Amino acid sequence: MITKDTRFLIIGLGLIGGSYAMGLKKNGYHVEAIEINQLSIDYALKNGIIDKGSTFDLDMISQADVIIVSLYPNMSVDWIATYQKYFKPGALISDVASVKTGVVKPIQDIIRDDVEFLSSHPMAGKEVSGVKFADDTIFHSANFIILPTEKNTKEAIDSLRQMAQILGFHNISELSVEDHDAMIGFVSHLTHAIAVSLMNTNDNTHLVEYTGDSFRDLTRIAKINENLWSEVFFLNKDNLIKEIDDFTAEVENLKSKLIHNDVEGLKELFIQSTARRKLFDK
């Protein structure tokens, strides 16, 4: 379990890694960070986000009780494979990747027997990046998902749940890797695909002076990191392709109502969507 003596190490001081560090340090925990950008370390130190930081420090790795790898999915696998030989026996390692296929199994297949990797997903973020935008309050209305496998212990699950509570997550749940990636393919990856596609439908840049809140709300997440999201889409492409097919079929259904002047059928779609959306307002 996590105690006040627990030493946290964040690998990667981006928005999420920086927000983890900020939230943990605010709650009195010792937080260190490894980040390739010295300017990010300097900013985090100056603003009290971390206790110590470095571009590379094996002692930090070997002394950490909990390591949060806040890197792109494939980079997370590579980093753990490279540096696990320095992990403290009994250390708990987790990640923040938004897709788990291609991450959890490769890591658990090679991880040392005396440490434990338990994957998790903080479902929070902003359309900005970098530690300068770190804000632990983004977790307070967000969901935190733990993804245990048969290789994980109850102690590790309890520790990650405790960490999520410390960070103030609104809801904490558990899912299998398969269920997580199917779910995230719909609620996150499909929505990003829709936003990107909407912004790429013709050249709509001349409409910037005329758009209202509906267009801005729908396309907010189209401001997207092309390197990260290309990787995420391909790692979860089977689920995403299925969701795109289902979405396309539903758009065609709506289109059919218009073609056939089916007023009542169109109203039924509106009634159903309204009822389903209200469930998210509770």
UniProtKB/TrEMBL annotation:
Domain of life where this protein originates: Bacteria
Keyword Oxidoreductase in record: yes
Keyword hit for Oxidoreductase: yes
Keyword entries, A-Z: Oxidoreductase
Alphabetized Pfam families for the sequence: PDH_C, PDH_N
UniProt pathway: Amino-acid biosynthesis
Domain Prephenate/arogenate dehydrogenase: 6-282
SUPFAM superfamilies reported for this sequence: 6-phosphogluconate dehydrogenase C-terminal domain-like, NAD(P)-binding Rossmann-fold domains
PROSITE patterns xrefs: PDH_ADH
GO molecular function: NAD+ binding; prephenate dehydrogenase (NAD+) activity; prephenate dehydrogenase (NADP+) activity
GO biological process terms on file: tyrosine biosynthetic process
Family: Belongs to the prephenate/arogenate dehydrogenase family.
Protein name per Swiss-Prot or TrEMBL: Prephenate dehydrogenase
